[in-house]
């Protein structure tokens, strides 16, 4: 019920009258583009709040423009742990791990009905694609995680494609009670320009009603497709929108950092991450050369749509005890359960277990009292509880 209400409110806010939009733009809060020219670009997964933490950088998003992958403007509370985002920001202080976000764009991989669930293999199938669930996967309105899913349930999936396993890895799964459209990403195959159909994985897409198509639509192109929620008489999914599926690279010469999965490999120094070509001919490889399926972080600059890498590093912290990070104020403490409630300015109250904290900084366990400002590192478990491994008291 609450989920449906929030979705209806979200649709209302996407329909703000033009006059209000103009006013927002005049105040620096609307228009879909930042008024200040970005000097850095970061692509990766949200792993914490404070405001949002992406690739280990704490971005202040209080004045950022937030949009989805259709450039519909939203709010800061749309940005949640496990989502993949692109952050255009002012200069990032890498030493301190902070930056000021000017524009944040988020995108999902799928919205659609589950066809089967394999709890033993930690997978489910949607649109013919096998989707893998890992311990770090976040769930919303699915209290038992994968065990809450059943065939026919409609879900929204955030994640990435692992070329090594030919599976998608879900980083966030949300129940969608009243989706008014479905959505999927994939690689075009069996394009038939006469019948105006193509295939994404095992599914046939009818795009006969779409007029605004990618100019280079062809087999092998990565696309994202918005669909009607019912198949046609031929059992095909009906597209209402077809767009290029590669997340947008940064403007040329902007300092950039991309987290993702190596999806194609031409050589040790020529590959792509999240569909973005990478030239690593002059890069430092901190963990040796990478192969398809490796999760990596690449630092460098974008030139003509190509990431000119300076540093390439493997990034595999799904099982890290300090994968997630929160900043906020303690509002209550339950010493018997060894938990406290942390208030975040956007996402409200979050429960934290401090039973297995390994380290306290600038304070002790006795300083966990209401009003204390803390930075907490740990990992989220089912139910949205953060199991803390480290607590640092902030001024």
TrEMBL record:
<feature type="domain" description="DUF5666">
    <location>
        <begin position="112"/>
        <end position="174"/>
    </location>
</feature>
<dbReference type="Pfam" id="PF18914">
    <property type="entry name" value="DUF5666"/>
</dbReference>
<dbReference type="InterPro" id="IPR043724">
    <property type="entry name" value="DUF5666"/>
</dbReference>
<protein>
    <recommendedName>
        <fullName>DUF5666 domain-containing protein</fullName>
    </recommendedName>
</protein>
<feature type="domain" description="DUF5666">
    <location>
        <begin position="259"/>
        <end position="313"/>
    </location>
</feature>
<feature type="domain" description="DUF5666">
    <location>
        <begin position="327"/>
        <end position="392"/>
    </location>
</feature>
């Amino acid at each position: 019920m609450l989920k449906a209400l929030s979705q209806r409110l979200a649709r209302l806010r996407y329909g703000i009258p033009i006059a209000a939009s103009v006013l927002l733009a005049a105040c620096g809060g609307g228009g879909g583009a930042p008024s200040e020219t970005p000097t850095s670009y970061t692509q990766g997964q949200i792993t914490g709040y404070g405001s949002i933490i992406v690739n280990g950088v704490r971005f202040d998003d209080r004045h950022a423009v937030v949009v989805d992958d259709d450039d519909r403007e939203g709010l800061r509370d749309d940005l949640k742990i496990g989502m993949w985002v692109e952050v255009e920001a002012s200069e990032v202080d890498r030493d301190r791990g902070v930056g000021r976000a000017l524009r944040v764009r988020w995108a999902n991989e799928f919205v659609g009905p589950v066809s089967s669930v394999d709890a033993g293999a930690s997978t489910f199938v949607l649109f013919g694609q096998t989707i893998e669930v890992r311990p770090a996967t976040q769930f919303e309105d699915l209290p038992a995680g994968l065990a809450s899913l059943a065939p026919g349930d409609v879900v929204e999936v955030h994640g990435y494609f692992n070329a090594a396993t030919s599976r998608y890895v879900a980083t966030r799964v949300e129940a969608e009670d009243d989706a008014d459209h479905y959505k999927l990403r994939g690689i075009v195959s069996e394009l038939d320009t006469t019948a105006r159909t193509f295939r994404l994985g095992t599914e046939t897409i009818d795009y006969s009603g779409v007029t605004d198509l990618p100019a280079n639509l062809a087999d092998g192109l990565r696309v994202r497709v918005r669909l009607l929620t019912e198949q046609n008489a031929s059992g095909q999914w009906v597209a209402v929108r077809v767009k290029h599926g590669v997340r947008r690279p940064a403007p040329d010469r902007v300092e950039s950092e991309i987290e993702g999965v190596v999806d194609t490999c031409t050589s040790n120094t020529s590959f792509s991450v999240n569909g973005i070509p990478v030239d690593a001919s002059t890069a430092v490889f901190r963990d040796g050369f990478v192969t398809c399926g490796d999760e990596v972080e690449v630092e460098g600059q974008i030139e003509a749509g190509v990431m000119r890498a300076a540093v390439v590093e493997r990034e595999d912290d799904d099982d890290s005890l300090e994968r997630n990070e929160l900043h906020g104020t303690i509002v209550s403490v339950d010493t018997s359960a060894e938990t406290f409630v942390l208030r975040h300015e956007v996402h409200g109250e979050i429960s934290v277990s401090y039973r297995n904290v390994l380290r306290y900084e600038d304070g002790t366990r006795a300083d966990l009292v209401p009003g204390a400002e803390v930075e907490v590192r740990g990992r989220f478990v089912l139910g949205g509880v953060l199991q803390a491994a480290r607590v640092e008291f902030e001024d």
